[in-house]
Amino acid sequence: MRLALAQVDPVVGDLDGNRALILQRIREAREAGADLVVLPELVVTGYPPEDLLLRPGFVRAARECVEAIAREVTGIVALVGAPLLDEGELYNACAICADGAVTGWAKKRHLPNYGVFDEKRYFASGTELALVDVAGSTVGVTICEDMWIPGPPTTELAAAGAELVVNLSASPFHIGRAQEREAIFSARARESGVRVALCNAVGGQDELVFDGHSLVIAKDGTVLARAPGFEEVLLVVDLEQPETMTLAPLEDDLEEMRQALVLGLRDYVAKNGFGDVVVSVSGGIDSALTAALAVEALGADRVHCVSMPSRYSSHETREDARRLAENLGCDFRELAIEPVVEAATDVLASSFAGREPDLTEENLQARVRGTLLMALSNKFGWLVVTTGNKSELSVGYATLYGDMAGGFALLKDVFKTDVFRLAHHLNERAGRELIPQSTIDRPPTAELREGQLDEDSLPPYSELDRVLEAYVEDDRTLEELSADGFDPDVVERAVALIDRSEYKRRQAPPGVRLRPKAFGRDRRTPITNRWRS
After folding, report:
1. Which positions are annotated as active-site residues?
2. What are phi and psi for residue 438, nearest 5 degrees?
């Protein structure tokens, strides 16, 4: 059997566009001599369609789309992920298309309802086995989570005579997920004693990124073929000739992060109809990394760098902001905020009479910058890409309606220590200094008061990030963290800051999910909440 895995990037809700994409890949697979082509989970609607599935008109339109696809499927069998309304129940399903018609359906059995998944809100669980004859071989059909769970349905399909079990997936990315997924699918192949093939989606959808890395695995668990990550591809293999198959390499963690951030931003911009983006560049490391990644995603001609110095901005950071834009080849403009800050301070002077300057005046500068960026966005249609990282967002070291103002928070799930690692990585990949070395070497500072450093308000990031990862992602309690050997003072400060900053995080823009527990879809902590660990 010649098998084609169509690793594609659909758009949620774009039924016409997705149909055209699906049919194009089916034609390419047929021209390549494939007997069977597999497409990702819910490829007709895009994944996850969320509450679109609660709209009867959307479900009907998706079914009509499936029928239209099937009418054009000849000379090949196509497995197409789509919702199915059957006897009053909605299923996450796969349409089996052949000879110009839908000849059968496979229904997802195991519905994930953890982390970013919410499938029990929409779908009923299937119970039947789905087998299809392809070129004289029996193929079992599963959908995503069905193969993450040991035992049925994979073992039942093998017992029923399946010689190959295929899996339609929309498995979201996080760091290390490709390796984890590969190990699990290899285990399913070994325990069932059949070959396994995975077709995974690729692309960005709001916070989620799908990384592809589609697979063909031998019955002994050996990975025979692997599609590249983070790009669309049609992987065609001859199952009886494993020696002809190719393995695209797996990326290390830094390259995974880079590719996920680039793809997530590129798709968010394209799928939501934006043209250009604007980034506030301060001469600091976060804004430099954000601008450099934006250029990789969109090209230098679509990225606008804006420096907004205040009286506290040093000559060095102002020059680094300008050098960054020059290194990247971006449009650059400098907008001095001091006149606006002075005007606002004058307006507030009578209300603030008798009170010493404090954090209020620092935040005012950040909010002026946010206002100017949003004005540029309104005037030119540029998407504001914010520059804050996960460390800052965790502890509330960010100004609501200031540096948090924007449409997409690219570094939302990137710890500060990883910001530095990624900056080095981008420079090394480029073979030149994209991000000025002086920016990387400078101690982090918001430059909102004279001589300010981040470590005046926060523990060192090397210590803070370890605590944040353990508390936010591993759900360790304050007592457990102290027992684990973390500095008790750092733990107490960090946990208190995290717990009282939830209201800010709720108002942050969406951003690329890189870790198993990102803020937003993964971690749903109440704002009004008196529990303290």
Report:
1. 41, 108, 144
2. -65, -30
